[in-house]
């Protein structure tokens, strides 16, 4: 009998509902039997349920073990803290896996070169934990006193953020990166850091990296200071394989790599923990494009393919990837971002591209 998978579905906001609908269409086209359990998160959850991260959303993900999620808006500089950061923390989704590969698109600056980089980003700590203090905080005077001792005046307005790196969380993400390399027959793992300046925090991350590397002698281990890495990856992206990074660098570097390979519209992601996983695109809610049936759904469709691999449905995941490759190559159903000029009149909408991919999936035996 055909197994029925129960999957939590979070549409998110902004362009979220459009790209999630597209991904759902493609998953269903593979023939996978799915019962989608719809739950809310962020601003929409606040409006409907009165909480940004409702317990019933967390319970659903814990119970089903997998969720497909659209992006959720976080206001810049004010308002609530990131719902995404808090969701990852509450479910202890400590891995952020972001594979980036080149597709046959015209717009990538490296369209003729092979890019196949897997970004493994630590997902729970670092500056990204958002532990910040401004001068109104009770802790500020004691922190300010420490700064003064180190010659940093706090007479003018100042704010302080803490960068937290722990041995335990560094070790598990680094181990994940090496395990991933071993299981997927990848040659190299590179640790990206700024340990020349941040000797304690990034220094600890780097030290653990080389300790763990000893357990994986068949994998080449190397490290790059992040500024040098950025220059090297733009010049020679084909030299890089698996990367492991603390949270904030991972966030920035995954967008950089996505840009090299054709943009955020093509970059999928997975947040993975010991007990459950949430699959979502790297991109955000792009509010200016919301509701216009305009943006590229491929990043979310590829995130759904990662979800199928996690569910050990490799064949169905590969069908999705093959269908995307063929639709891109044929060039008839492409959203604006994959066209050489952004106002190309032949570009199609989100739904039209998703339908072309779904039809292609159905056409495979
Ligand atoms: P964004 O990724 O939403 O958009 C940046 C730009 O990238 C867009 O203006 C658009 O030009 C392009 N883009 C993004 N997705 C695209 C797609 N599918 N197809 C074509 N082009 C695409 O980044 P932002 O504007 O910095 O963030 C908007 C909001 O999203 C913020 O509130 C941010 O916090 C949130 N965000 C959420 C997540 C998440 O939920 N995981 C991730 C990143 C950002």
Overview of this protein structure:
- The structure is a single chain.
- The protein is α/β, with parallel strands linked by helices and about 375 residues long.
- The protein folds into three domains: about 1-95 and about 265-365, Isopropylmalate Dehydrogenase (3-Layer(aba) Sandwich); about 110-125 and about 165-260, Rossmann fold; about 130-160, no CATH class.
- It has helices at about 15-30, 45-50, 55-65, 85-90, 140-150, 165-185, 200-215, 225-235, 245-260, 300-310, 315-330, 350-365, and strands at about 5-10, 35-40, 65-70, 95-100, 115-120, 130-135, 160, 190-195, 220-225, 240-245, 270, 275-280.
- The radius of gyration is 21 Å and the shape is globular.
- Nicotinamide-adenine-dinucleotide binds next to loops.
- Nicotinamide-adenine-dinucleotide binds near residues 288 and 295.
């Amino acid at each position: 009998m055909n197994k029925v998978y129960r999957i939590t579905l979070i549409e998110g906001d902004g362009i979220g509902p459009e790209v999630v609908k597209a991904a759902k269409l493609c998953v269903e086209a593979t023939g996978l039997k799915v019962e989608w359990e719809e739950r809310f998160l962020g601003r929409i959850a606040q409006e409907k349920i009165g909480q940004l991260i409702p317990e019933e959303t967390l319970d659903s993900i814990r119970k089903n073990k997998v969720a497909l999620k659209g992006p959720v808006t976080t206001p810049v500089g004010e308002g609530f803290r990131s719902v995404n950061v808090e969701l990852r923390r509450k479910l202890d989704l400590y891995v952020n896996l972001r594979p980036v590969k080149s597709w046959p698109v015209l717009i990538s600056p490296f369209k003729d070169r092979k890019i196949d980089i897997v970004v493994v980003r630590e997902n729970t700590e670092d500056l990204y934990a958002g532990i910040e203090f401004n001068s109104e905080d009770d802790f500020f005077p004691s922190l300010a006193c420490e700064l003064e001792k180190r010659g940093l005046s706090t007479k003018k307005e100042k704010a302080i953020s803490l960068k937290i790196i722990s041995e335990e969380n560094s070790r598990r993400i680094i181990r994940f990166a090496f395990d991933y390399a071993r299981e997927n027959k990848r040659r190299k793992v590179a640790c990206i850091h700024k340990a020349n300046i941040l000797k304690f925090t990034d220094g600890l991350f780097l030290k653990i990296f080389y300790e763990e590397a000893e357990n994986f002698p068949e994998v080449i281990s190397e490290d790059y200071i992040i500024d040098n890495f950025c220059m090297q990856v733009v010049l020679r992206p084909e030299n890089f394989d698996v990367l492991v990074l603390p949270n904030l660098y991972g966030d920035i570097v995954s967008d950089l790599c996505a840009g090299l390979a054709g943009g955020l519209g093509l970059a999928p992601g997975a947040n993975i923990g010991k007990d459950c996983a949430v699959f979502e695109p790297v991109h955000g809610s792009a509010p200016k494009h919301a509701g216009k049936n305009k943006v590229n759904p491929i990043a979310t469709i590829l995130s759904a393919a990662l979800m199928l691999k996690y569910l050990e449905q490799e064949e169905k995941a590969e069908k999705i990837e093959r269908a995307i490759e063929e639709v891109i190559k044929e060039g008839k159903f492409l959203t604006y971002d994959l066209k050489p000029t952004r106002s190309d009149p032949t570009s199609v909408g989100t739904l039209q591209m998703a339908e072309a991919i779904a039809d292609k999936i159905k056409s495979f035996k």
